[in-house]
Amino acid sequence: MNRLFLNKIVLALSTLSAIIGIGFLFWILATLSIKGVSALSFDIFLNDLVNGGIRNLLVGQFTMAFIATIVGVPIGMMAGIYLREYGNNSTFAMIIRNLSDIMMSAPSIVIGVFVYAIIVSPMNGYSGFAGAAALSIMMIPIVISTTDNMLSLVPKELREAGIALGGSKHKIILQIVLKAAKIGITTGILLAFARIIGETAPLLFTSANSAYFTMDLSEQFPSLTVSIYNLANYPDSESRDLAWAASFVLTMIVLFINLLGRYFTRDKG
Amino acid sequence: MGAKSFRNFSFLSATISFFILLGIFIVLISYSKDSIEAFGLGFIFDNAWEVGEDDEGGIFGGLVPIVGTLYATLIAMVLAVPIAMGIAIFLTEVAPAFLVKPVSISIELLAAIPSIIYGMWGLFYLAPIVQSFFGGSGIGLLTAGLVLAVMIVPFMAAISKDAMNTTPDVLKESAYAMGATKFEVVKDVVMPYSKAGIIGSIILALGRALGETMAVAFLIGSVMQIPSSITDATTSIPVVLANNFAEADDLELSSMFYLALILFVVSFIIISAAKFYFLGKKR
Taking the domain B64-278, which CATH number applies? Predict the structure, then answer.
């Protein structure tokens, strides 16, 4: 009886933990939606920060994330291909795998500090380039690990069939292996994009922020997340409302991309 | 692209993680050289942070942000570990089949929310609650630790759940056939089997909590003082960097790089430990 009772208590506690976890998700989403939607208006998408809108911030944040993606995805994918297709279980590949996992978990603020030292300081000013560089450093290890993992799921027989047809190694990789892993890698890239689009710390002193619309990447660049941080700390209610609206938009974007990635891989459990 | 250049390009790409990490080390060490020469290892135990007259020189020590980082992380871990384990157990053994998927997805979505959202939510919703229960201003170590806990729970739960799921069904079924309760199966079969993965997940979450910036920046108060109680405002290494880095120069800037170096080295060691000792045997 005693062990059955203990069992019930532990199971109840574990269920309670799950309820607490889900509860926080709904609490956060609920407050975000209530505060965000009430502050949301069509106007904020048409105006720049200087006029109380978020148009330039959205464009700026996406521009930097897109550039980071364009730089980070080819490098990350090629690195992942090397690790799985050429290096496989060699010592070199294992070391690189571990280093890239370490890089993936490195504090994002340190990456901001690093980019400040190598780009902002020599160029004498904050710039969109620096912001994009910091984001691509965040993105590369995520893409490496996804590509590596997804390629490892491609059956060996597919590669052997390619070899039997007389294909050269890089043709087999490009035309057979990558095609087989396409969905998984695409999802991984989407999730990596969702991760960097919401980053703040690496942008604080790389892109910094701008209240005006600009596409000039050599200047201080508008950032949605940095603006949220600034706006939320202002005492006036208009700034706070705008911060809530911006947070709501950001969270919806991030969750949407995550769900999209999940939808692509829905059959693979 | 020829076979050879394809291979070479992929090899070069693979070395980038190594070069970036090496670059971070070199940059942090060379920029913090002035501060290291001026204060040495005593920096870690000195609680002064005073800019000298005319912004020249000054005395800088890292004790306050280091202590703040450790306390906030400790509070977060104490709160988060039991809850994350509870969720992982719920998802592997307790939940009815129809609940497993929606609950896992919710937990993973919670992990995907940007940290700045947690910070802002904590500032406007959690801080007043902490204030009404524990007094103080609501801004301080406890609130920062709480929000950190909310942030790392889903991360820790997701990895622990995956580790627990690797337990072979045969082992669990044998235990059930012997009349074991679910709790006994978890305690005596699942936990021992997935111990390495669970500890690894806790250490990775620890690393994440140590380096978290935005969630803490809203809530810790950003004051250079050693906290005398759990509700006191203080600061942490990432928060000092986030709020003061842009305005600092000379020796103060160098000391900021020193702080960044300490944070980087500590998280490097923690993550490597998690990788090599606990999560190493995957594949």
Answer: 1.10.3720.10
